């Protein structure tokens, strides 16, 4: 059984999660701009900031699951739906739907950014391939990430 204070706490938790998710959207948007602009410095900063927001989201989700578990529901999405169906007011339902929509949007933004990264990697690999054409040195980097360029003797040079 939940009290109105417990429901208010859940409402606050959902509001905090939605706020953090909106912050993640901004970081993903900034990341996309940095990828398009080839701004490596910003990407490094954004990675740390994005990880911090993701850590906060994980913490808030755990808090939300603890709240519904304390009310006797499972600590998962189905427990959340059951809790909302049996206890929540329309504002909590709306917050939950907004959070679900925001999460889907963040997944899509992350997918787009992943595609941009994959395209940048392919372009970089193509550039490396151009530099390596006609060379018998093989791959520039080995599986360990270390350079694997082998030197070959220069023809026409007398070594004493």
Tell me what you see in this structure:
It is a single chain. The chain is mainly alpha-helical. The protein has a single domain (4-132), classed as Up-down Bundle (Methane Monooxygenase Hydroxylase, Chain G, domain 1). Helices cover 74% and strands 0% of the residues. The chain contains four helices and no strands. Helix 1 (4-36) packs antiparallel against helix 2 (40-70) and helix 1 packs parallel to helix 4 (90-132). It is elongated, with a radius of gyration of 25 Å. It starts with a helix and ends in a 28-residue tail after the last helix. Mean pLDDT is 85; it is low at 1-5.
Topology summary:
Layout: H1 4-36, H2 40-70, H3 77-87, H4 90-132
Helix pairs in contact: 1-2, 1-4
């Amino acid at each position: 059984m939940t009290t109105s204070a417990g429901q208010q706490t859940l409402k606050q938790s959902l509001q905090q999660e939605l706020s953090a998710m909106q912050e993640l959207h901004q970081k993903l948007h900034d990341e996309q701009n940095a990828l398009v602009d080839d701004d490596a410095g910003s990407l490094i900063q954004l990675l740390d900031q994005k990880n911090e927001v993701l850590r906060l989201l994980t913490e808030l989700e755990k808090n939300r699951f603890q709240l519904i578990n304390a009310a006797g529901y499972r600590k998962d999405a189905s427990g959340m739906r059951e809790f909302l169906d049996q206890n929540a007011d329309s504002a909590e339902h709306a917050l939950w739907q907004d959070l679900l929509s925001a999460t889907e949007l963040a997944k899509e933004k992350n997918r787009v950014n992943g595609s941009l990264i994959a395209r940048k990697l392919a372009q970089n690999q193509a550039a490396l391939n151009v530099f390596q054409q006609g060379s018998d040195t093989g791959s520039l980097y080995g599986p360990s990430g270390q350079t694997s360029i082998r030197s070959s003797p220069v023809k026409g040079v007398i070594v004493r």
